[in-house]
Design a protein that fits this description.
Layout: E1 7-17, H1 21-32, E2 37-40, H2 55-60, E3 71-72, H3 105-108, H4 126-139, H5 168-179, E4 185-186, H6 225-231, E5 235-237, E6 240-248, E7 251-259, E8 265-275, H7 281-288, E9 309-317, E10 331-333, E11 353-357, H8 363-369, H9 374-380, E12 385-392, E13 401-409, E14 415-420, H10 425-444, E15 447-454, E16 488-490, H11 505-521, H12 523-532
Parallel strand pairs: 1-2, 1-8, 2-5, 3-14, 8-16
Antiparallel strand pairs: 4-10, 6-7, 7-8, 9-12, 9-15, 10-11, 11-12, 13-14
Bound molecules: flavin-adenine dinucleotide and iron/sulfur cluster.
Amino acid sequence: MTSPDVRDAGRWDAVVVGTGFGGSMMALQLVRAGLRVLVLERGRWVDRDDSAWDTRAVLVDRKYRSVAPVVVAGLKPIYPDELVGGNSVIYGAASLRMREADFTMGSLLSTATRPERAFVDWPIRYADLEPYYGEAEQLLGVAGVAGQDPTEPPRSGPHPETPAPYGSPARALADAAAARGLHPFPLPLAINFAGRGGRAPCIQCLTCDLFPCKIGAKNDLAVTVLPEAIRRGAFVRPRAIAERLLVERGRVAGAVCVDADTHERFMVRADAYVVSAGAIASPALLLRSGLGALEPNGRLIGRYLMRHCSGIVVGILLRRTNPERRFHKQVAITDFYFGPAGAAPDAGRDWWGTIQSLQVPPAEYLTSHAPFPIGQIGAATLEHHLSVLCVAHDEPNPDNRVALHPTRRDPYGHEVAHVFHRYSARDRGARRALYCEAARVLRQAGARLRIRKPIATFSHAVGTCRMGEHPSGAVLDPWCRVFGVPNLYVVDGSFMPTSGAVNPSLTIAANALRVGAHISAGWSTVRRRTEMA
Ligand SMILES: Cc1cc2nc3c(=O)[nH]c(=O)nc-3n(C[C@H](O)[C@H](O)[C@H](O)COP(=O)(O)OP(=O)(O)OC[C@H]3O[C@@H](n4cnc5c(N)ncnc54)[C@H](O)[C@@H]3O)c2cc1C
Ligand code: SF4
């Protein structure tokens, strides 16, 4: 079955691949139920030393960069960062819930008038996730204020923490938006402003988004959920790459892994396997494991890739925008979520998305990443910038996909992920509408120039193993189990049938808690399924 050079590395109740929002929440949920859980992670623990806030180390020299590229058609290859805790370690900590209507987007945006529209309903509703959103907010210590977000879904309790007061740039943005009749509110953030749990409180620096937090005040998974899972008995194995799953008689019988440092191969076995390697790496792993041949859903693995149609509008003001040089990614505007300000979700119009304040990047990052002379001009005017992020809904399209590259291999000999993605005219239209609204707010705040810049990254990738009611249209069932492989689950952002227009992490976390609770509650059935194989 396996070659003799693959060492047997033991048997567990559950093996989880990846320590991002999906994998960490799942590991915690399973270990709380008393299961023996092994968590495989190809990255390593982050160094909480001076290098964490060093632009050169993190963004220019790319200290945590993977050796395995993702090849993107029409763009340069991407080398993601690899860390225990996944992207949570370097993320911006914005922690919003999806809107209630996001779960029935297919029905609300009638297909009668636009037959080509690909939006679908989720097989679950917001109410199914609501308790888990609450639990995720508790685990991540989200600081927010309920009742001010005009499209906020119902919630059964307040946020666990209170946000910090606005800094100058956030105050300028919020005042300008309010003057235009909008309803800005404090962006919910998974940041420890109050020193929760005896940990160091946030010192409100300017190296948050894109950077690890040196003092552990960002409530990333490596300082919150994973330590708790480990305390309860989960075994987290850094630098362990899941190479492929062995599928025998319709069940996963083992995971072949490779040690990222020694290149030694080893095999782990379990009753249940949870893949949570991120929306690009997870479909690649499933395809490397031969699951593309599954009937009838294997052909859907990797398809419907979404990444939000996002962009930045940089306002340039005559005055210095942040003289105190304080953290200021603090404001959100959701008035345009369903189209023009105040539009109802069922108004039969295209939905747009959210606008959020954005941390101004370090000068060294601009000069090293933007083409000459744009980077130099940007760096020279940086103290006068007021930037916002526009996050637009994007359509699920089967042609936007993750496949395996036909020839390119990484240093471990794995076929690398090959990504194909194009936005539709609808996606670009939604982003354009948000750009215009954001520019109006920035002009109101005093911006003399307003510069738009699309975001080309896949940092919000979702949708590549979507869940649904039926295998003819989905890879996963409503409990995120792969149709046709009863002991295999996928719980990273791949599961999402539509992207919504809020940053995805809290939804991925809440869903993993939901699925983890389901697996734990029905553990004897899960085990029986494996024994029957
Ligand atoms: C710079 C940046 C800022 C962001 N800011 C925000 C924000 O403010 N708010 C928000 O909601 N979202 C934000 N996001 C997006 C958010 O981080 C992601 O949506 C989220 O982390 C996805 O979680 P996940 O569980 O799907 O996967 P990931 O976080 O990608 O975790 C997957 C993990 O699996 C590991 N892995 C991959 N392949 C293998 C393998 N074969 N074997 C073992 N391990 C493997 C990876 O190393 C990684 O640790 C941001 C992203 C970036 C990059
Ligand atoms: S702003 Fe706060 S949470 Fe973010 S990196 Fe700085 S200290 Fe850490």
